[in-house]
Amino acid sequence: MSDRTPETGASFTLSATVTNAGDGPSAATTLRYYLSADATIGSSDTAVGTDQVGALAAGGTSAESISLRAPATSGTYYYGACVDAVTGESDTTDNCSAPVRVDVDAPPTAILDVTCTGRDCTFDGSASTDDDRITSYAWAVDGVQVGSGSASSFEHTFPRNGTFTVRLTVEDTADPAQTDSDSEAVVVSDDPPVASFTTSCDENRACTFDGSGSTDDVGIASYSWSVLEGVRSTATATGSTFKRTFGYGTWCVTLSVADKLGQTGSLTDTLVFAEPDDAPVASLSVSCEELACTFDGSGSSDDNGIVSYAFAVDGTQVASGTSESVGHTFASAGTYSVSLAVADSADQTDTASRSVTVVSDGPPTAILDVTCTGRDCTFDGSNSTDDNGITDYAFAVDGTSIGSGAASSASRTFDEDGTYAVTLTVTDTNGQTGTASESVIVSDAPPTASFTYSCKNLTCTFDASGSSDDVGIAGYTWSFVEGIRSSASGVNPTHTFSSAGSWEVTLNVQDTAGQTASTSQTINVTSSM
Q1: pTM, whole model, 2 decimals?
Q2: Does 300 lie in the same domain as 258?
Q3: Which of 187, 281, 349, 476 is the least buried, fewest Cβ under 10 Å from its Cβ?
């Protein structure tokens, strides 16, 4: 037989030799293979195969074999073979072979379970099985053996965080030993500890610090406390709790924790114990001009000084900071509640409030009147109004200023006829403005010359009062031609001609804009004898 201790289901070869023990030849026959549960092989056992054996001479032999598969269940089994009797055979008692014992042994099954706390891990193979028993457990990490023996579990501490492959290999009692392996990928992580503590202090500054809320994925190994006043260390202690009574001042309390791998974490809390301090006293005054007001908290006081002023109107904060006064302009007239909250360096506070009534100052209303005589115009803003008075009148023509000030009127003589945009801007005591504009057509027509006369003998009186101009005539000039030219001026000149005859008289008139007109008449003058 090729393997007397095969694993369950394994292939093996069963061999048999058939011998003709008679004195004469034997006929061909059949060799039958059997599986038996006991040590006796017979035709009543379980047939597992056959071979054909040819005729044999006296004393001849035939070697036969068959390939078989071991049973699926481990145990002790017996195999053998029997040849069928042939014609003329005198003795059939030796037609079956002696049994061959076969011990079928199932291999072990490795089952690995890994549990870790931080980097401390337990490799457990106790769930592994074998039909007999497991004799050896071998442990490896990333292909490197870290332990072996008959114990079904193994403790291992990883040197660092990471992912590792853990393998268990088990052996059973078979000879040679049968083995099986199981692997598991293990993620190892040991986070550093997190320091945490609570603080409780009574009115005498006696404080208790509790660090039991600190955490670590494996466990806290140690607690260490330190206290600093400024940069000077004043106390140290160990344990998860710490007690200390403090004096006035600023103190820093630090808890440092460590886990068993030496990883650390820390937390610092600052304690401030101020010496007794009186609360501040708030004082508020309010002054207003129309809607613009000043809130003044400079009268507030504190024994150590006020560090912040917060002003509010109707409960809504409008300013805060270190300035003791602020300006505020209300959107409309009305009565408002103004409050001041002051705080000192110890965060003690006080509040003062006042009811404030403010009145509205509406913008001025500009009213512009323009009157012109020819090109001479007067701009009048005296009808403009404001509830508190107008302080400035600014006049402009076509966007160019022609003057401003307290005077409510201005004048302008235009050089040319035309249409002009005249603007008046008025300003009140609060700087508010109002504007009025007017389009002005300026026209100055030229004068018309006209005269009458009356004569007595050679002396004539002339009257130019019939001449006209839309603004007014500024000058009259007369020209008398009687052989020689002479002249006169005025509305009613008198001229004595040198002799009787027909003489040409010309009148020239000029208006205030320098425009002129003329007219001529021929005068018949006679002298009395």
Answers
A1: 0.37
A2: no
A3: 187
Q: Is residue 389 part of a domain?
A: yes
Reply yes or no on whether the pLDDT at 520 is more than 80.
yes
What is the domain count for the chain? 6
**Residue where the block lists tokens 């509790």:** 210
**Which domain-ending residue is among 66, 85, 104?**
104
**64 neighbors 53 (Cβ within 8 angstroms):** yes
Range of the domain at 223: 198-273
267 and 318 belong to one structural domain: no
Q: How much is the average pLDDT of 328-356?
A: 93
Q: Report angle CA 399, 402, 405 to the nearest 5 degrees.
A: 115
The reply to whether 156 falls in a domain is yes
Q: Indicate whether 348 and 431 sit together in one domain.
A: no
The β-bridge partners of 67 are: 13
- Residue with tokens 């269940």, as numbered in its chain: 73
35 and 95 inside one domain: yes
The whole-number average pLDDT for the span 194-202 is 96
Q: What pLDDT was estimated at residue 511? A: 86
Tokens of 364: 């001025």
Contact yes or no for 82/89 (Cβ under 8 A): no
Contacts of 186 (CB under 8 A, 6+ apart): 114, 116, 121, 163, 164, 165, 166
- If asked whether residues 22 and 88 sit together in one domain, one would say yes
Structure tokens at 328: 């505020």
Q: Which of 170, 188, 206 is the last residue of a domain?
A: 188
Report residue 276's pLDDT band, with 50, 70 and 90 as the boundaries. Answer: confident
Q: Rounded to an integer, what distance in angstroms lies between the CA atom of residue 368 and that of residue 381?
A: 5
Q: Does a structural domain hold residue 6?
A: no
pLDDT of 231: 58
On whether residue 330 sits in a domain, the answer given is: yes
Residue 429 corresponds to which tokens in the numbers above? Answer: 């005591």
CATH code for position 63: 2.60.40.10
pLDDT in tens, 80-117: 999 999 988 888 888 999 999 998 888 899 999 999 98
Clarify whether residues 130 and 90 are in a common domain: no
For residue 151, count other CB atoms closer than 10 A to its CB: 12
pLDDT value, residue 374: 84
Tokens at 264, concatenated = 């650390």
* 361's tokens: 């100052």
Shared-domain flag, residues 130 and 177: yes
Of 158, 156, 183, the residue nearest 169 (C-alpha): 183
What is the token pair recorded at 164? 């590792």
Torsion angle of alpha carbons 211, 217, 218, 222, nearest 10°? -20
Give yes or no: residues 346 and 379 share one domain. Answer: no
The rounded distance, in Å, linking the Cα atoms of 303 and 289 is: 34
Residue 230's H or E segment, with its range, is: none
pLDDT tens, residue by residue, 482-501: 877 788 899 999 999 989 99
Q: What is the pLDDT of residues 383-420, one digit of tens each?
A: 999 877 899 999 999 999 999 999 999 999 898 889 99
Give the pLDDT confidence of 118-136 residue by residue, as tens digits. Answer: 888 999 999 999 988 999 9
Which tokens go with 71? 């049973």
pLDDT attached to residue 113:
97
